[in-house]
Amino acid sequence: MTVGVALTAADADNQIDATVRLAREASAAGLRSAWFGQTFGADSPQLAAIVGREVPDLHVGTSAIPVFGRHPLLVSSQAQTAQAATHGRYHLGLALGTKLLTEAGFGIPFERPIARLREFLTALRQLTETGAADFHGELLTATTPIPARVPGAGTGVPLLVAAMGPQALRASGELADGILPYLAGPRALAEHIVPAVTAAAEAAGHPAPRIVALVHGVVTDDADAVRETVAEQLAFYEQIPSYARVIGLSGGTRAVDVSVIGDEKTVAAEVRRYRDAGATEVVFSGTEAAGEAARRRTWALLGELAG
């Protein structure tokens, strides 16, 4: 099992320079991958490509680009460029996104998300594997009157989906290479998420899917105080039905209930629980919640676990 971290430097004077510095530190700590969220700020595939060039020991990934407000042709160009820049170390994560951000930000209706995800994945797979597409769906059209291949990108980009609900898991098992569940604890993974996506992949004749568990956590000796801070930071997710559901399936009532907060022994034990629940990779986010010293302490432990 590999271990990585999600890197965040949005408050820095220069986000790109600061992210590269963090990536170098993560690599030096022994971590294997660095992942970048997609907001309305920095473009995550570009950020991944830059970091992957600057820090060649790390695999880099996007977690995750919403399919609403994007088109497979454009995302394929971004992904293939990042893949060529990193010589095969880029991993593309996609997401359904949320009704709130889709409609408020893009001004488009959040309708038929699973159908859009299926069409997006189908067209994107054609593009990233062959550099061409001739896809005509109900919601999307993707054709290539001129070539869409990026030389050096190879014959494919790993496609992962931030899927946790039954329909999204089925689509991901059939059409993607794996999933990127977030705020899904070991119980939800073992009892609901991993069996569903694995069954879908098997039925489609695909290999066992990657399960890249994104875990919010930090090593600290002041767990109670950090938990209060994290509870405020993650409260937004409790308003989103998909997250509220998976938190409940994990045995929690609030997002902080599925965060991993404690000393080295506690955090290491929780990482093992994720592994035992079916995670093939664990990626920690929110490691800066208790300050720089705690972040470095967390990365040191994760680096040891990665080794």
Molecular structure report:
The strands form 2 sheets. Strands 1-2-3-5-8-9-10-12 form an 8-stranded parallel beta barrel, surrounded by 7 helices. The protein has 2 domains: 161 residues, Luciferase-like domain (TIM Barrel, Alpha-Beta Barrel); 123 residues, TIM Barrel. Helix content is 46%, strand content 16%. It contains 11 helices and 12 strands. The mean pLDDT is 96. It is α/β, with parallel strands linked by helices and 307 residues long. The radius of gyration is 19 Å and the shape is globular. It comes from Streptomyces iranensis. This is Oxidoreductase. Keywords: Oxidoreductase.
Helical proportion, percent range:
40-55%
Instruction: Find the CATH superfamily of the largest domain.
Output: Luciferase-like domain
Radius of gyration: 19 Å
Briefly note the structural class of the backbone.
alpha/beta
Low-confidence blocks of residues: none
Biggest beta sheet summary: 8 strands, parallel, barrel
Return the domain count: 2
CATH topology of the largest domain: TIM Barrel
- Compute the number of helices: 11
* Annotation, overall tally of beta strands: 12
